[in-house]
Amino acid sequence: MKIIAYSMGDSNNPATWSNVPFYFIKALEAEGVEIVRVNVQPFSGKRNIRVLINKGLNVFKAGIPFERTSYYKKSVRRKMLKALKENPDADLLLSFDFSSSIADKTDKKTMLFCDWDIKYLITQIDKRTPNKKEQALIEEQSEIIKGADYAVSIFPNAFEKMKEDYANLYYFGTPINLDEPQFDIDGALGERYKNKRLLFIGKKKYLSGIKALYEAVENYNSKNESKFYVDLIGMTQEHTGINSEYVNHYGYLNKNNPEQWKTYNDILRGAFFFVNTTDNWVGASSILDTAYLGIPCIINPNPDLTKTFGDEIFFGYYCRDNTADEIEKYLKRLSELSEEEYTLLSNNARVAVKGYTYPEYIKKILELIKS
């Protein structure tokens, strides 16, 4: 089987779209699938140009980002058609988004793989009514999704909402974007229990979460002899404005960079709990990755997470109020965990996500394609 895989960014780079194309394609290749990788992003490798264009659109109050402009979409289609022309023997055209497709120009099978559509993003996550320009984009994207042979959503609640509009929509679970760690998970438990290091993973959209955690840690540490420390991956001190001996900033760590991958492994080896209580949405990939490594969590539930793990989780805690006072209550609870109780939570985390690996996920994708 030969698949042309279109992605917004280099799919050889784990940094592209939260590692998803990288691990998805890697698992396909492990199954013997021939992959033609195509980066369809306009001005690829020239992020400064894209930033300047978006700033210009904001100045002129265009109401949409560069990725939603006609120029962007036409440029993407040209690259997609060019790759198809160069690979007429391809069996499937795979796009890692719901907005790019050339199904109307070919009889090849097409698959769209993404998290959710624009409608879900606006109405369910942003919780607002689309404006006229956004409504036009929703209708345009709807036609693209309906025109594909297969559309696959990563998240269960998004799937439940979207399947009301799309008969060709599928859901196979939420896969883990992680290679095997370079450490013994069982051997790390004792170290994790003793050091009480908390792990926060997230970019600037999770700023409210890290600030609440920082305040909770400061408050707790000021009143107790034992201390909690936070390792923050994804943001620098410039992003957070936090200057504390209890918070270590690492910025973005690229899993494709050996030195950064080692740093990432070292942090995960020593992580006691994963914590992100940001309102409305918490990065599911971070929760799955850390749980796979036996790290329990404190997270703010949203419909996708509760559909995946249930109304209560047995490998951590749902914190429904993203405030320092509420988080501090959970820090006190963590400080009182026995080593046996912690080990149980850790083992529960691994059990909860054991079936979420990409090799298992890709088998389901290939069954769908071949059916």
Characterization of the model:
This protein is of the alpha/beta class and 371 residues long. Helix content is 46%, strand content 15%. The protein has helices at 20-30, 47-59, 70-86, 118-125, 132-147, 156-162, 185-195, 207-223, 237-240, 258-269, 284-292, 303-309, 324-335, 339-352, 358-370, and strands at 2-7, 34-39, 92-95, 109-114, 150-153, 169-170, 197-201, 229-233, 247-251, 271-276, 297-299, 316-318. Strands 2-1-3-4-5-6 form a six-stranded parallel sheet, with helices on both faces. Helix 8 (207-223) crosses helix 13.
SSE layout and pairings?
Layout: E1 2-7, H1 20-30, E2 34-39, H2 47-59, H3 70-86, E3 92-95, E4 109-114, H4 118-125, H5 132-147, E5 150-153, H6 156-162, E6 169-170, H7 185-195, E7 197-201, H8 207-223, E8 229-233, H9 237-240, E9 247-251, H10 258-269, E10 271-276, H11 284-292, E11 297-299, H12 303-309, E12 316-318, H13 324-335, H14 339-352, H15 358-370
Parallel strand pairs: 1-2, 1-3, 3-4, 4-5, 5-6, 7-8, 7-10, 8-9, 10-11, 11-12
Helix pairs in contact: 8-13
